[in-house]
Amino acid sequence: MKIAVVGGGPGGLYFAALMKQLDPRHEITVWERNAPDDTFGFGVVFSDETLGGIENADPEFADAMARRFARWTDIDIHYRGESHTVGGQGFAAMGRKELLGLLQRRCRDLGVVVHFSTPAPAADRLRESHDLVVGADGVNSLVRQSFPDSFRTTLDRRHNRYMWLGTDRVFEAFQFFIRDTEWGTMQVHGYPYSGTGSTFIVEMHEDVWRRAGFDTAEEFPPGVSDMSAVERIRELFAEELAGHQVFANNSKWLSFTTVRNERWHDGNLVLVGDAAHTAHFSIGSGTKLAMEDSLALAACLHEHPDVETALTAYETERRPVVESTQRAAQASLEWFENIGMYVGQEPTRFCFNLLTRSRRITYDNLRTRDSDFADRVDAAFAASQGLESTAPAMFQPFRLGQLELKNRVIVSPMDMYSAVDGVPGDFHLVHLGSKAMGGAGLVMTEMVCVSPEGRITPGCTGLWNDEQRDSWARIVSFVHERSTARIGLQLGHSGRKGSTRLMWEGMDDPLPEGNWETVGPSPLPYGPGSPVPREIGRDEMDRITAEFAAAARRGAEAGFDLVELHCAHGYLLSSFLSPIANQRADSYGGSLENRLRYPLEVFDAVRAAWPAERPMIVRVSATDWISGGNTEHDAVEIARAFISHGADGIDVSSGQVAREERPAYGRSYQTPFADRIRHEVAAATGTAVIAVGAIASYDDVNSILLAGRADLCAIGRTHLYDPHWTLHAAAEQDYRGAGAQWPVQFQAGSRKPPTSRTDAVRPRLSLLRADAPDRNVHLRWTPHREPAALS
C-alpha cells in the first residue's frame, strides 16, 4: 500500500511506524513542514490505558518511552493559602521533544521516508497518487480544510486564555495553583515531565486577561514567544516558581478551540488526532488521543480487506471513545472558565469540586484512591450544613423552606398519561405510593393540569374540580401514613404543546380526533406537524391565572406538602419565557423582563393561594438548546426574578421548548446549569437548587452534593427501573440511619445482598504485534481498570 501522511507530529509518526512494522512492503511517506528539531510545548501526559496499547503494539518503543517517564501519584491543589494533596492517581509524562526524537528514530530504522521542513503536496493530488492519505496535521489541518463538505467541521473557540510554558522547577506531583488576584482568578496547571523540568500552563478567563493588561495588539509570528507576557507571568507567579526559571517555546496567549467533525474519513482520506478532534488539556493530552487513533487506524487497515471498510471500522471504533472524552473535556474547560464562581468555597469543598469537575472522577473514585481525603470532604460538607452525622451526603436531612426532608433525593415529576377525565386513580396510588415507600425524601406528582384545555394529552391528571382533589387526597394520605416521605404537587398548563397523543402512541404528535384548541404567547407551532396555537389575550391570561390559583387551593386542601410551578419544557409559562416561542410586541414580549411578566403574575397568584408555611418552588428550562433562545445566563436572571418573588427553590431542567432543539445529552448533563444558578444567585439567598437530568447513580448524587453544585437531586427514570432505588442505595453504602428508613414490612430485605457492586471498567487497547506467530493483528477493547484522568 502506498501511504501519504501529512504531519510529522506524534500521531503521524506513530501511525507510520506501526504500519511499517505490520508490513514492511508499505510505501510510507511523511511530510512535516517543521524542522526535525522544532517542537512546541513541553511535556505530554499518558494514561495507563494508552501505555498498555503502546506496549502491546511495540514493546521496543514502549521500553524506550518508559526509561524517560516522570511518574507521580498525587495531585496538589493550592488554594487560599492552603495546600491539599490527593493521592492514588497514577500518571506518566515525558518531554514532547524526547517523544518526537524517539518516533523519528523509530521511523528511520523501519524505513519510513520523512520529509522535514517540507510542506505536503495538495491533498487532492495526494489522493490521486496514493492508496491512503492520513491527515495528521493538527488543529489547523490543511487536509481537513481542503474538503469542508466532506468533514463538515465545527470550531468552538472558548473563553479562557492560556499560555504553555516550562520551568526548571521539578514538581513532585501534578499541581493546581489557584490565585485570586485583583483582576480575577488565575490558575496554573503544572506537572513534571523529566528530571529537569515541568510543564507550567497559565490560564485565566478572557475578561481577567484583559483586566490584567495582557491584551495587546501585537501579533507574534510562528516560533516567536510573547516575552513581555512571559516576564509578567514570572513576576506574578514568583511564589509558585520558588526561585526557579520559567521558559518559553513558541509561547503566546491562545484560546482553546474544540474541533469536531461530522465525518473523519472520505474515500481514501482520513483524519487522526487534533485534525479530527480536540479535547481540552485539563483532562489529559491531545498526543495521547492522537496515538490511540494511530493504533486503531493501523489495526483496522490490517484487519480489513479494503481501505473504505477499514476507515469505517476505525471511525466506528474510535468515535464513541473520543466523544466521551470530549464531553468530559467540555465540562472541565467550562468549569475553569467559571472558576471565579467557586473561589468563595471552603477549601476542602473547592478541591473536591475541582477534582470532580468533568464527572470522570467521583466521590467513590476518590475514596478508593485516598480515603483520608474523602473523610475530610465528608466532614467539610457536614460542617457546612451544621450537621454532625457521618451519613452519606444524599442521606443528610434538608430543610426546604419550612419543610423538613429526611434526605436529599427527589422522585422527579414524570407524566404517566393514565388518568381518566383528569382524575388520578389506582395506578397513581401505586406509582407514587411505591416511590414514597422506596426511600426518597420527596416524591413529586406529574404535571397536574389546571384546566381541561391545559392538558398535554387526554390521559393527563388535573385539579380543576373537587373530584380530582379528593382522589389526590387519597394518594397524599397514603404517602403520609405509610412512609416518611413528603409529596409535592407540580402545577402546569400545556400551552402550545397540548392536545397530543399519549406518549406511547406518538409523543408530541397531535390527536387524530377530539382535539382542543391550544394557546400560546404567539401563534407559533411547537414543531412541524404541530397545530398553530391561538395567541393568548389579556382576559384569557387572567382566567388561566385564576385557574392556577384555584388548583393550588385544591392542592393545599388535598394535603400536598409543597407546590412546584412548571415553567419549563415549552409548556405555557415556559413558552412565555423563551424568545423562541414568545415573539409578542406588547409588554409581555421582547426583553427578558417582559417575557418574565406573565409567569411572575401566575407565580404570585399561586403563592397567595398556597399556605404560607408550605414551600413553593419553580421548575425552569435553563437553556433552550437553540440558537437565539434562552441560555444559562438568562436562566440565572430568571431564577433571580422568581427568588425575589419568594420562591423557596429552583428546579433546574433544560430544553423541550421546540422540536428543533439540539441538546448535548450526557451523564448529569444539566447539573452545570444548576451549579451556575446556585453559585450566582441562590446560595446567597438561602434558596434551594435542585439538579435533574441523567443522574443515575448514588455516587453521582453524592458527588454533586459534596461539590456544592446543588442542594437536592431529582431522579426520574431510575426510579421507574427501581422504585426502591433510594433504599437500595443506602444498602449499597451500608447506611441504616434516619435518612433511609425501610418500611417495617420490608425490613427483612433491608440487608445488602451478598453480591457486591463492581466498579465500572474502562476499555484498554490491545494490538497484537506483527511478529506474533499467527500474524493475526487485532485492536480490541478488553476490560481494564484505568486510573481516573485529570478531571
TrEMBL record:
Gene3D superfamilies: 3.30.9.20, Aldolase class I, FAD/NAD(P)-binding domain
Family matches, as InterPro entries: Aldolase_TIM, FAD-bd, FAD/NAD-bd_sf, OxRdtase_FMN_N, YqjM-like
Signal peptide: none
Domain named FAD-binding: residues: 131-326
UniProt xrefs under Pfam families: FAD_binding_3, Oxidored_FMN
Domain NADH:flavin oxidoreductase/NADH oxidase N-terminal: 394-730
Matches recorded under NCBIfam families: PRK08255.1
Protein name per its UniProtKB record: Bifunctional salicylyl-CoA 5-hydroxylase/oxidoreductase
The organism of origin for this protein: Lentzea roselyniae
Lineage of source species: Bacteria, Bacillati, Actinomycetota, Actinomycetes, Pseudonocardiales
